[in-house]
Amino acid sequence: MRRLISGALAAAIVFIASGARAEVVATGTFRVLRKRERTQICRAEWEVNDDGTQTIFTERGQGACHGFTEPVSWESQTRVLSTDSRQLRETTRWIYSPDGLTPLKIIRRTFDPDTGTVNAAVVEPFDQGRMVERSWHGIEEVATPTSLLFVVRDSLARRERSGSVHVVTSEPSLYTMRWVVRGIEQLTVPAGTFTSVKVELLIDLGLLSVLRPLLPKLYVWYVAAPPFQWIKYEGLEDGIGSPKVGV
Fold it and tell me: Are 151 and 83 in contact (CB under 8 A)?
């Protein structure tokens, strides 16, 4: 287990080093609110870098998120191709105690486009070293709940009003996610009031689609002009069964 943790930390150093050489194209913060009470449960800072070949999304935050009811701290990095955000390369999330000293969970997902293989591993060092691994094959395109925001943004830039992509969550599970533009709205958020594009996200449940009315609605809003910056999300925090939140 020590080797797994050390490898993850080494990967973090490589990610951060490569991000430092890339161009910073966007930064910001976001708050995650418990949907019903509208109370803040966590907060994170994010940064997007691009070195011309890959886009690197880095996130650092604290709060009761990612399946934890008590506060934790976390860092994650997601890499996708600069030319195609549907081509996830790797994403790793390290979850620690609030002081950042004790590792609680490591979630890593990778995609090999040559073989069409998605691999996911969840390691919990202090839960008797529990490890869950899953793989899927024959996949052409894949995203995570985080990189899905880039996929939809790029779709809007191409003037597309709908689309779909596989999404690998931290459970880990693999879903087909569709998105559909639902219209233009005036949206007020702490940063101001924006003319926004409202997009609905739809999880393809296959034969279980009759259960869709039981799931919360998933929506994301973007500024209705290039570069179509993401400004708000409402829906599940991660996969099916995760809390309903607003970001």
Answer: no
Considering only the C-alpha atoms of the chain, give the largest distance between any 2 of them, rounded to a whole number of Å.
Answer: 51
| β-strand partners of 75 | 60, 94
Q: Where are the alpha helices (DSSP H) in the chain?
A: 2-21, 148-157
Alpha-carbon span 53 to 125, nearest angstrom = 34
Mean of pLDDT over the chain:
82
**Strands (DSSP E) found in the chain:** 23-34, 39-50, 54-63, 72-81, 84-96, 103-112, 117-124, 130-136, 142-143, 162-168, 174-189, 192-204, 218-223, 230-236, 244-246
Backbone angles phi and psi of 64, in degrees to 5: -90, 75
- For residue 195, what pLDDT is reported? 96
d(CA 32, CA 30): 7
Determine contact, residues 246/232, Cβ cutoff 8 Å.
Answer: yes
Segment 195-222, tens digit of pLDDT: 999 999 998 866 455 555 566 788 999 9
Question: Do residues 58 and 95 touch, judged by C-beta distance below 8 A?
Answer: no
| Residue 46 tokens, joined | 């994010």
How far CA 32 is from CA of 10, 40, 52, 87, in Å, comes to 29, 6, 31, 26
Q: Please give the Cα distance from 65 to 243 (Å, whole number).
A: 9
Calpha distance 55→24 (Å, rounded) = 10
| Domain extent listing, the chain | 2-246
Strand partners for 139: none
